[in-house]
Amino acid sequence: MCRCSERRDDLGFEQNLPAHARTVCSLADERVRGAYLTPFEVVDLRDDFKQDAIRQNRFTADGLKATVHDFSIGLSARFEAAKNVIAKAEDRAAELRAYLSAS
Asked: 7-57 pLDDT, tens per residue?
């Protein structure tokens, strides 16, 4: 559980929610957290791929550079998915802010 969830618990936010809503909040927190961690995971995957290729001595220097570049481009869909998750979370936060300020 991320720290933002712990702060909400301290305020008693989730105590007022029905059980299914608490589950949705937890899942949303994990999705956003995962989206923010995606760039680090992608860099680790790229570095592992590069180290494996170097260890196996499969490519020339230029071939290694091109292969790592192609592998990195293949991972770009993960960045787009993470960006979409974060954008949805920002939109939802704006909706909640508007709702709370109207109340």
From this structure: 444 444 455 555 555 555 666 788 888 888 898 999 999 999 999 999 998
- Residue 99 has a CB neighbour count (10 Å cut-off) of 9
Question: Residue 12 phi/psi, 5° resolution?
Answer: 80, 15
**Residue type at 56 in one-letter notation:** Q
User: Residues 40-53, buried b or exposed e (16+ Cβ, 10 A)?
Assistant: eebeeebeebbeeb
Full-prediction pTM beyond 0.70? no
Is residue 95 within 8 Å of residue 52, measured between CB atoms? no
Helix (H, G, I), strand (E, B) or coil at 43: helix
- C-alpha–C-alpha distance, residues 33 and 38, integer Å: 9
Q: Which residues contact 42 (CB under 8 A, 6 or more apart)?
A: 72, 75, 78, 79
The pair of three-digit structure tokens given for residue 5, joined into one six-digit string: 């969830």
